[in-house]
Amino acid sequence: MPAPRVPYSSASTAAATAPRPAGRHTAYPPQSGHPGQSGGPAPASAAAAKPAKQRDAFFDNAKYLAIVLVAMAHAWEPLTDHSRTAEALYMTVYTFHMPAFILISGYFSRSFDMRPDRLKRLVTGVAVPYVLFEVAYTFFKRWADDDPTQPISLLDPWYLTWFLIALFVWRLTTPLWKIVRWPVPLALAVAVLAVISPDIGDDLDLQRVLQFMPFFVLGLFIKPEHFQLVRRREVRLLSLPMFACAVVLAYWAAPRMTSVWFYRRDSAQELGVPWWVGVVMTLALFGCSVLLTACFFAWVPRRRMWFTVLGAGTLYGYLLHGFLAKGSRFWGWFEEYEWLHQPVGQVVVTVVAGAVVTVLCTPPVQRAFRFAMEPKMEWAFRRDAAALARERAASR
To answer: Quick one: which of 5, 119, 124, 298 has the most CB atoms within 10 Å?
Structure first.
């Protein structure tokens, strides 16, 4: 998938924690600015009077580290059939990497409303990339997998594009979550109802949209002080045994359960279990995901690092690395090179996945693909009346 973009920077000061423009940091991931900020061009005098808001390194670091974990987990998937250790690491990372990305997407969508400029950014920063990459992935599968019958279907997201359609739906529902009394429990109830509803089908990948939605809603109502809380020293120390316990539990569970639960794309009935198992698994996974996400945030650096600048390109890394991740399966690399299943090979696969997604988040790649990820498309929208009035007033 993948934000993308899924996860966002604010500033360390209270004023700078306001969300940034939605067209940039959509998610898992999510896209390069901060979703959800009140947008619109400021008058030239105001722009000159106020310095540009500084990005919070913490959120850019979190986005980058989350997208690296996404790429590594995708690289581990072919190894899980032959290695219980790989399966345990895979399940552990899948417990929190997308929830973390989605939670940050929600956090930077807090100010989203139906204002025209924000709707424009939602279209250009989420809907248009979804259409373009859905088509691109379809043609890629036709070529790489020798499957000329693969249909183009905008109603059935393929592979990583589900995150974009999910983000589009989640953000549109933001005003609704702001007016209900218990938004997170309500979103969790919707997720529970989804997992026991096999008739939802595959349209717009609604199972994933609904089952992952509690993390987005949770992000909408998290405050800056909550992130400060998880960064305390005692929380960092406590997170280490928590991660260790998670890996041990995943190692025990690896041969006893399917990792498909972590994808949240199927109902309980489709997985061949009673409906009540779906309810239990949804609630249990939500609790585990929130806990491990907090542990992950506890170890995200707060200061600027060499990779901080890459946090603005996580959606690029998310969507582009999918071609290599799927291509490696289509071309049979893991079957042809048996040494990849050995411990040394697994380390090599992990390092290569991290390196590839790092390169794909860099500014040159962003510039090369900005036409698809962040198109301006001024020609497609009516001119805003307020902006026109400001221009006329300035020209007098």
So the answer is: 5
Quick check: 67 and 105 in contact, CB under 8 A? no
More confident residue, 178 or 10: 178
CA 88 to chain centre: 22
> Does the pLDDT value for residue 126 go beyond 90?
yes
Listing DSSP states for 21-60 in one string gives BTTT---S----S-TTB--SPPPHHHHHHSPPPPPPHHHH
**Encoded tokens for 366:** 């962003």
Q: Which 3 state secondary structure label does DSSP give 370?
A: helix
Residue 72 maps to a domain: yes
Q: Rounded to an integer, what distance in angstroms lies between the CA atom of residue 256 and that of residue 105?
A: 33
**pLDDT at position 337:** 83
For the chain, give percent helix, strand, coil, nearest 5: 70, 0, 30
Residue 50 in any domain: the answer is no
Task: Please tell me the total count of domains within the chain.
Answer: 1
Residue 1 lies in a domain: no
Residues linked to residue 21 through DSSP beta bridges, in sequence order = 37
Distance of alpha carbon 188 from alpha carbon 193, whole angstroms: 9
pLDDT at 175 over 50: yes
Length of the chain as a residue count = 396
Angle 128-144/363-373 helices, nearest 10 degrees? Answer: 100
CA torsion, ordered 297, 173, 129, 386, to nearest 10 deg: -110
Compute the distance between CA of residue 127 and CA of residue 271 in angstroms, rounded to an integer: 30
Q: What is the DSSP string of 257-323?
A: S-GGGGGT-S-TGGGTS-HHHHHHHHHHHHHHHHHHHHHHHHTS-SS--TTGGGGGGHHHHHHHHHH
**Strand intervals (E) in the chain:** none
Q: Give the torsion sign (CA, 303, 307, 310, 316).
A: negative
Structural domain that includes position 305: 15-42+57-395
Q: What is the pLDDT of residue 103?
A: 95
The Cα–Cα gap between 315 and 32 comes to 7
Position 393 scores a pLDDT of: 76
pLDDT at 17 > cutoff 70? no
